[in-house]
């Protein structure tokens, strides 16, 4: 990590607020968030992480749409998209050099006990080196998320499908993966379906078809997965969203975990069983993902 760039966003849900008045570039080493902020005390808020390649933000609109959807699911006021868009651009202008970076932007419910006054900010930093994960690949373990496939309709208050700040579980599963000598995780449902990774979407290839688990199972709609489908369509593959049974892993020809920062990481083992990785195919996919406009 270098020194991150931090942009505070005043009045982040005011639809009339203008970037010139709302955005403040601040010293990343100084404290800026109230210790009583509900984002900290309860993880009550939402975020997005966008990839930045050669100084250009990827999938800006798709991220902002998902941010708005998460806000609605948490019954937060809608974030002003122009403020967040401008905050990312302001941050990029202050990143050291151009290259691969990321921006995480956040909206919280604001101060505990106070009137509703959401907190908004963005921070940016250069990416770690993901070369190994993008080429040799990653080993995964299947871990239960503890819910059935119908969680979104049976228990919408569990907020599956919203990108909330409550990611302690998503970190805990990675520690469990480490204990099992694996790099990452694919979540499963208690009734035997595949879902997603803790910070990534799952894309499977069966012959000439790309498949990803449908969002109605309580998974995020990944912007990188959308790019992966575009890449597949461009190569004449069929693409589809559907529920995928765990047993179908036995017939998959390739698997990737896709996300904005790491892009496509091919899965080279599941629960200790090795999977072949087609290096050329994955290189083509990652080259496509890196080259995406908007
Ligand atoms: N699913 C979860 C739970 C995530 O946290 C993420 C990204 O952080 C994704 C999927 C992938 O989304 P994207 O490709 O838009 O980064």
Your description of this structure?
The protein is α+β, with helices and mostly antiparallel strands and 294 residues long. It has 2 domains: 122 residues, Aminotransferase class 4, branched-chain amino acid transferase, N-terminal domain (D-amino Acid Aminotransferase, Chain A, domain 1, 2-Layer Sandwich), CATH 3.30.470.10; 160 residues, D-amino Acid Aminotransferase, subunit A, domain 2 (D-amino Acid Aminotransferase, Chain A, domain 2). It is 28% helix and 27% strand. It has 9 helices and 14 strands. The strands form 2 sheets. Strands 7, 8, 9, 10, 11, 12, 13 and 14 form an 8-stranded mixed sheet that branches. It is globular and about 55 Å long. It starts with a strand and ends with a helix. The relative contact order is 0.15. Bound molecules: pyridoxal-5'-phosphate. Pyridoxal-5'-phosphate binds next to helix 8 and strand 12. It holds the Pfam family Aminotran_4. Keywords: Lyase. Belongs to the class-IV pyridoxal-phosphate-dependent aminotransferase family. It comes from Gryllotalpicola koreensis. This is Aminodeoxychorismate lyase.
């Amino acid at each position: 990590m270098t020194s991150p760039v931090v942009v505070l966003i005043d009045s982040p849900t005011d639809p009339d607020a203008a970037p010139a008045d709302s955005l403040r570039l601040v010293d990343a080493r100084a404290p800026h968030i109230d210790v009583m902020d509900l984002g900290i005390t309860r993880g009550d808020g939402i975020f997005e992480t966008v990839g930045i390649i050669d100084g250009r933000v990827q999938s800006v609109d798709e991220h902002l749409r998902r941010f708005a959807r998460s806000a609605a699911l948490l019954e937060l006021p809608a974030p002003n998209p122009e403020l967040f868009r401008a905050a990312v651009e302001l941050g990029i202008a202050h990143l050291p050099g151009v290259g691969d970076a990321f921006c995480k932007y956040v909206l919280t419910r604001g101060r505990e006990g106070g009137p509703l006054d959401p907190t908004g900010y963005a921070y940016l930093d250069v990416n770690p080196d993901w070369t190994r994960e993008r080429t040799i690949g990653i080993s995964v373990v299947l871990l239960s998320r503890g819910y059935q496939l119908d969680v979104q309709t049976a228990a919408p208050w569990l907020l599956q499908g919203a990108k909330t700040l409550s990611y302690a579980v998503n970190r805990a599963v990675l520690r469990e993966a480490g204990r099992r000598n694996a790099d990452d995780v694919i979540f499963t449902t208690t009734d035997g379906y595949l879902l997603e990774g803790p910070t990534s979407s799952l894309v499977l290839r069966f012959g000439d078809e790309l498949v990803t688990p449908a969002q109605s199972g309580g998974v995020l709609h990944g912007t990188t997965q959308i790019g992966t489908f575009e890449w597949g369509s461009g190569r004449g593959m069929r693409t589809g969203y559907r529920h995928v049974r765990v047993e179908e892993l036995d017939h998959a020809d390739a698997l990737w975990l896709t996300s904005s920062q790491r892009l496509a990481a091919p899965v080279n083992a599941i629960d200790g069983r090795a999977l072949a990785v087609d290096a050329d195919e994955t290189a083509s996919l990652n080259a496509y993902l890196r080259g995406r406009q908007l």
